[in-house]
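#data-curation
PF: Archiving a pair of folding outputs for the training set. Convention for this channel: one message per protein, sequence first, structure tokens after, nothing in between. First:
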Amino acid sequence: ASDVIKYFKGSERFVVNVTDSEGNPIPEGNVTIALPNGTNVTVPVKDGVANVTLDLPVGENDVNVTFEENDEYSSVTIPEVVKTNKLNTTITVDDIDDVTIGENITIKGVLTDEYGRIMPNTNVNITVNNEKLTTITDTSGKYSITYKPTKAQSYNVTVAYLGNATHNPSNNKTTFTVNKIPTTTTVEVLN
């Protein structure tokens, strides 16, 4: 095997294409990937391709990819630097209907990563005008918090996920209005 080429997408999929010196796919064999934490992962080659899911930390990871010698092909080891990036995130916030003083509103939405996977049990920061609130997503990646506005005015709501070692931050905004309680006045003229 004269050439081992790696392709890497995100923090999960590692594909090794294994070819002979003429560029033909090697039909079968094994590839061993030596990971930075000292463990080795061995995956079978089928029709010149070895696929494996790796859990590598964010950053540059030095790995050694080895096609193991078999009856037809010699062994080859190629060092690779695999760069894994933080995943992007999306936090949604549902539209909030206008209310009247004294009524509660619910601020809710969903937190997902760039692949649409939910992010359960994760902190969400919420700012309503200048008031800071926090909540946590549930097992479905959803968050919800009840808020009781105290003044008749427009309110700006910002929801934010601050990010962590593996995920980038994201935020979203919405607005709602609190109206005064309507009044009715009647005038009675007495003679």
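PF: Second:
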Amino acid sequence: FLPIYSDSVPERVHFQAKRLGWSVDDLVVECKSISGIDHKLCAQIKRTFVVSATDKECVKTFSAAWADFKGASFQKNFDALALVVHLGTNRLLGDFGWLLTQARASGSLADFQNRLSGAGLLNKKSKNDYGTIEAILRDANGGTLDASEAWEFLKGSYILSYDFSDASAKDEASVKSTLQSLRADDAPIDA
């Protein structure tokens, strides 16, 4: 099982992927769906995270994800960007996560813009998160940003939470199981 691509099997795991040309440094997982479609999951893993244009780690995280999103190795309709946080807060998983969900649920840019401007679907915090991310991406893009690209970026982005240091640590067990299945199939794992 692989988050986001539940019908896919991991084929290769790259740790510290910057050495391979990715801007997202922590993890890139190459996988193949049961229908034969290749996907890449590009993940940045953080102990804590705050969506803020004044937070250096936030700016660095979204700028790196944007660079990969715009890069030649990323297939916009097949690959995903993930921000993985330790025991994510309701603020991050709820408000920011709901913004990402609404981006994916929108059938068009106009639909997404209506969700952003209307009442009821996105709360003030989610809308503020959009403004923050939009500003960070604009800066990372040299001062301009196409609204459709920002929407596509959000559609391809996910927020996940992990519980490695928790006594029950279900996520740790899942990751170890996935890595072990790769080892059993002699799949290469880059350190």
